[in-house]
Amino acid sequence: MQEVKTDLLIIGAGPGGLSAALYARRAGLDFEIVEKKMAGGQIINTASVENYPGFKDDISGYELAQNLLGHCKRFDIEVREYFAVNSIESVNTRKKDKSYHFKCPGDEKLIWTNSVIMATGASPDRLNVEGESGLIGKGISFCATCDGALYRDREVAVVGGGDTAIDEAIFLTKFAKKVYIIHRRNELRAVEILKDRVLKNKKIEFLWNSVVEKFIGKNKLEEILIRNKKENKTYKLKVDGVFEYIGWKPNSELVKDLVELDEKNFIITNFKMETSLPGIFAVGDVRNTPLRQVITAVADGAIAAIYVDRFLSA
Ligand SMILES: Cc1cc2nc3c(=O)[nH]c(=O)nc-3n(C[C@H](O)[C@H](O)[C@H](O)COP(=O)(O)OP(=O)(O)OC[C@H]3O[C@@H](n4cnc5c(N)ncnc54)[C@H](O)[C@@H]3O)c2cc1C
Questions:
Q1: Which structural domain range is residue 24 located in?
Q2: Angle between helices 192-200 and 163-172 (to 10 degrees)
Q3: How far is the CA of 176 from the centre of ligand 1 (A)?
């Protein structure tokens, strides 16, 4: 297996990882940045980003990611795409010693590094109800931007009540003739501007106090079995597609035995983005941050690179 040695390994090329790479390059660090899929991170899944400062006109998530990548290329940063780090082993925590502290095997290469920035983001939670696993990709989706256009003039449902659920439900009204929002509470958690927009949208109907009990369909989704918790009644809703936006799971498995995690498995860091193990830093959606957005991920990436530099030169 080919071996690579570096001072810093950045795992994940979403906004957090790419920003860390930019700041690491400008600090003159020797580093590698790897990405298990296409570079850009989760944001490539959204049709429009309206809240990233400096972009007053709508920009798509894909375009924003391309801008970030273009900025990295300008500083000769090459992302190793389709390279998944499979584990991280702490081999030597003695500092000052030139040997490498972490052994990080990927599919075909082994990376030895003195420090790691975990920029691995988060993945969508599933409802884990009957019928779900067999119908993913056959009517059940986690990405309105990717699959929304398939439901032109059809009826779809969104499950969830947070910002992303509401944002994507509004986006789906561009295509679908009707969008149900299935929400387990009787009020929304979303920010005011979104609440106002969604409540005024005539194509959207809320199913409050409701939970999905089962997805029904042979080769494609046909119906959802819904329970109204307040009335304790179940009924079937005919829809062509359903989009789940119920939360996110942090991609923190690589370090679960090395660093402290919170009760939901997000990585705990201090303001320097340091984890409980010296040499491992975490940024963006994978850490226990109060806000999971592009702006916070890129800010974290910048801070982490600065403190990695201090860690390496201490
Ligand atoms: C539909 C949708 C709409 C959104 N809209 C907005 C918005 O309008 N405005 C906004 O600010 N934010 C928005 N967000 C949130 C924003 O996308 C995230 O907060 C941001 O992308 C987090 O960046 P990150 O770098 O921490 O993680 P991510 O973007 O999740 O990137 C992590 C990367 O790490 C890679 N990775 C994971 N594990 C490994 C491994 N073992 N080896 C190698 N690579 C690995 C993943 O493939 C991924 O590319 C949206 C998110 C979604 C899903």
A1: 2-123+248-313
A2: 30
A3: 26
Give the active site residues: 143, 146-147
Q: How far is the CA of 152 from the centre of ligand 1 (A)?
A: 27
Atom 1 of ligand 1, nearest CA residue:
46
Same structural domain for residues 84 and 21? yes
Q: What is the pTM of this model?
A: 0.82
Question: Quick one: 138 and 213 in the same domain?
Answer: yes
Give the total number of structural domains in the chain: 2
- In whole angstroms, give the CA distance from residue 71 to residue 66: 8
Give rounded-to-5 percent helix, strand, coil for the chain: 30, 30, 45
For 77, residues 6+ apart whose C-beta sits below 8 A from its C-beta are 21, 22, 25, 33
Query: Is residue 113 located within the same domain as residue 164?
Result: no
259/237 same-domain check: no
State pLDDT tens for residues 110-144: 999 999 999 999 988 999 999 999 998 899 998 88
**Closest residue (by CA) to atom 8 of ligand 1?**
49
With a 6 Å cutoff on the Cβ, whether 36 touches ligand 1 is yes
